[in-house]
Amino acid sequence: MKVLLVGDGAREHAMAEALASSPQGYRVYALSSYVNPGIREAVNRTGGEYTQGNINSREEVAKAIKRFNPDFGVVGPEDPLFHGVADEFRKNGIPVVGPNMAGAEIERSKVWMRQLMWKYRIDGRLRFRSFTSLEEASRFIVEYGGSVAVKPAEQVGGKGVKVVADIQAYLSNEKRRALSKSVDEIGSLVKNEVKIIIEEKVDGPEYTLHVLTDGHTFLPLPLAQDYKHAYQDGIGPETGGMGSVSGPGRLLPFINEEEYEKTLKIVQDTARAIGQETGESYRGFISGQMMLTELWGPTVIEFYSRMGDPETSAIIPRITSDFGYLLQLTAEERLTQAKLEVRMEPSVVRAVAPLGYPLRRDMATGKEISLDVKAMREKGCLVYFGSISYEGGKLVTKGSRALELVALGDFEESSRKLDGCIKMISANTELVYRTDIGRTLGEQVEKAEIVRYSYQNRIRRNSLGVSADWAPNGGLW
Amino acid sequence: MAGIVGLLAFDKVWNISRFLYYSMIGLQHRGYASSGVVMLNQEMRSVTRDVSPEDLEFQLEGWAGIGYTGSRRGYPIHNDEVAIVVDGVLREPENFLKTFARDRERALEEAKGAFSLIAMTRDGEIVGYRDETGVRPLSLGGFGFDMGIIASEPVAMSVIGGDFRREVMPGEMVTISSLNVKSTQIKEPRKAYCSIEYVYQARIDSVVNESNVYETRVRIGEQLAEEKPIEADTVIGVPDTALPFAVGYSRKLGLQLDLGFTRTGSPIRTMLASDSFLKIVGVQLKLNPIKSAVFGKRVVLIDDSMVTGTTLKNTIMSLRRLGAKEVHVLIGSPKLISACPYGIEVPEDKELIAANLSEEEIAKVLGADSIHWLSLEGLSRAISKSTLCTGCMTKRYPKVI
Ligand SMILES: Nc1ncnc2c1ncn2[C@@H]1O[C@H](COP(=O)(O)OP(=O)(O)OP(=O)(O)O)[C@@H](O)[C@H]1O
Ligand code: SF4
Ligand SMILES: [Mg+2]
To answer: Which domains are seen in chain B, by residue range?
Structure first.
């Protein structure tokens, strides 16, 4: 059987690897915007073909479909989904993993997502306001001066979110000023009329639940947690994620069964609501990026219409049943036949980026990295290639997270393996990575315990999700 | 002694001057006779004055900066390349600056003293270093996706809405720039944490030297109860440092706990006031005993330390005037008998009452019914660490400088 994979990052490498090592004996074909060394290897190993082109272009995807004539397709990243790449597969009669453009709106538009959650009264929703004018948004921030999250109304490549707590009233002028300044910056990234969304700010440990659906059946994967801060010890600007953890079992140490079930329900309710709203059932991954908060317990920060990166690298290696086949079953709407087996032991993922990521991508581009994947595997680390391309026998960075290293085993043991493997990478630039990932689970457990007191108290008082803000001129919000 | 802080915003839209200002106020319990800042915009600009940080006015703008509040004059010191603030003792700071600008690791390896320091370079790096003894604290944190912070105590982060991440390890250098946060072990740790941090220097809400300060002080109170149980009607602690001692002591013995004092004016630590007149007037002005808490009662009075005894003497006298039947004094630290060479202002032997008089004599001077100091073993049991500096109590100093 032939599968066509669209995408080029570490997530797609992990998927390509799962497909290539499936007992189903898939031949892996791939379309990437550059030659990802890992995908290349999986393609070669299975006797597929690898082609380069614009992964966001329906025409180029159509060409690849015509050329390779795959039995099913897998779309990895969100951007192609936003551009209708899954629609293109389906138009050509090829089953595919990934929602149509209409369904992917759940990720592309943060405003649509929040409106949907309110319309269908889905648990874990946050209060929000949307703004077409940047001045208005700035005025709102100054007026309410509470704790808010300011975001571009649409996905603009995981950038631009500002989260500011304003408990310390005496500082609010400084914070507001910086925020209003960045509102201009954020707004300039958005093309649509609605530019900015402002949400109430919540607090608590974050986690992601990935759910596979074929439109009828839902299959939840083990939880994962992604680490957003760029630098060591959880300090630094926002990134796409500098690492992740998953496990033990299908949970994380700070999330209990009940919270897992509740989260699953939120994701299912949302997928069904999307179905009703768009008139076609949602098919593919739908992933809840969640926070455990005192307001709701499981609370939605956003939805992915795909797998998260770097969560994928933490999850796939823990799955002992045939993940590649799971993808095929999803595409072919036969998910009822699926079985999922997960290792008990957890995993830790550490991303490695060239110096300059995320604030000076120019510095992080065009650098050379070398490593011995086999030797690292012997030390207990899997390597997934991300933003790095294979050019004339060399590995050249593309400006973002170049590698994701994965180790299995209890958190401390995995972290130690990763410490050892990182040293085996050489580069002609400084490398940025975080050694604290996998070593701060204790803190997350405590954080979760604190919010758990409050949200369980809310359940007893029947006030789950109830909150408000007030300003003298703006009134209640 | 001093509180030091360094702040760096990853995005230059921030003007961090108010953040710096409030985090310094958060640290002023560590010393406040002099304060100063250096802020970085295109270039480094500084303001230093002999006032507490509350009164330090500065109109500087910038996206990175360092601040000092403490008992030494003239910090931050800087040249064109580097500015530093120091808690503890650093010899030949001017030379240090020069070397640091060329080769920071070498500068830190060769530095003479016992200290924690924070440096800021003109090209936008904040560097924190805690010497291998860890005798002075230092911690690391952040503010959202926007800032990195290094400071003496976590309170400098929490007052501005930031988060404490971890302590800097003895011998470790941490570098924050807009492109990375890095940790380098410069020297092998030879831990000798300052006992006085636990006893009174750090804030009750702090985490320093791998311990939670409040819990440690409650344990000291419990330890005092084991060592010296007293038949009394009430237990009172001298605010703020000694309150948790009183909590632990009363809890352990099932004695009533009372709030014996209320405060007038801002909390100024009388032990530090250099003028002895100020010391006498100061304490009476500042800590007013509450009559109904002590009237007709046998009182256990707990304080954190004793230097000349003047403060305690006055306190005891006023308790008696308000009708205390007995006053038993407990001190939450072993006797201070020698100066501190590492930047804590423990006076010289000749000024320390415990270095000169016997316990009986001291009780007589103070007018107390009895007096007891926490034992050295009791101290290390309460702190549950063996890697402590107790130089000012034992004259055994862990590091020669
Ligand atoms: N309402 C909120 N309250 C508190 N924190 C929030 C809120 N919204 C977002 N955040 C924080 O900001 C981060 C990024 O937000 P969000 O996921 O919405 O943006 P994004 O740009 O889509 O990021 P990415 O695609 O990288 O996940 C979240 O992981 C969370 O830490
Ligand atoms: S001598 Fe005393 S005050 Fe100085 S560092 Fe040692 S314990 Fe602390
Ligand atoms: Mg997100």
So the answer is: 2-191 (3.60.20.10), 195-394 (3.40.50.2020)
